[in-house]
Design brief:
The chain is an alpha+beta fold and 127 residues long. Helix content is 43%, strand content 22%. The protein contains four helices and four strands. The chain has helices at 3-19, 29-51, 58-65, 116-121; strands at 70-76, 79-87, 102-108, 111-115. The protein has a four-stranded antiparallel beta sheet with strand order 1-2-3-4. A hairpin with a 2-residue loop joins strand 3 (102-108) and strand 4 (111-115). The longest helix is centred in the N-terminal third of the chain and has 23 residues, at 29-51. It is elongated. The model is unreliable at 21-31 (pLDDT under 50).
């Protein structure tokens, strides 16, 4: 009988059985880079939004900021209202973007009227 091979097989079996159900984690680089990209995007969005002037067209804003996270559109009394929501701060570390993590940009007839919660409060209610 070949005792060294048998001993090696026994050790291998014991180690393998001992590791079942174990998870070896070597850092979480994916979430770190994802978190980093969110932080960079949020900072960029805050900087761009802070530099916007009332009267800027919705097309110009979309060219600068890209596709919003959320958007609302409605018409009341012959005025067209658009609210675009861009991510500007993390509230929940869950990988999902929610409206409370965004800054609203309010447009009336395609022209920027204001940003933030205060601008939302001055809008007429949607029907």
């Amino acid at each position: 009988m070949n005792y060294p091979k048998l001993a090696a097989l026994g050790i291998f079996t014991a180690v393998t059985l001992g590791l079942q159900g174990c998870v070896v984690a070597i850092g979480d680089h994916a979430s770190t880079s994802s978190d980093s990209s969110f932080v960079k995007k949020e900072k960029s969005n805050r900087k761009t939004i802070a530099a916007l002037s009332p009267g800027t067209s919705i097309l110009t804003v979309q060219q600068q900021l890209g596709t919003p996270e959320f958007s609302d559109l409605w018409t009341t009394d012959d005025a067209h209202y658009n609210v675009l929501y861009y991510r500007t701060q993390r509230v929940h570390a869950d990988g999902m973007t929610t409206r409370d993590e965004c800054t609203p940009l309010v447009f009336i007839n395609g022209v920027l009227k204001g940003t933030g919660e205060l601008a939302l409060q001055h809008l007429p209610q949607k029907n």
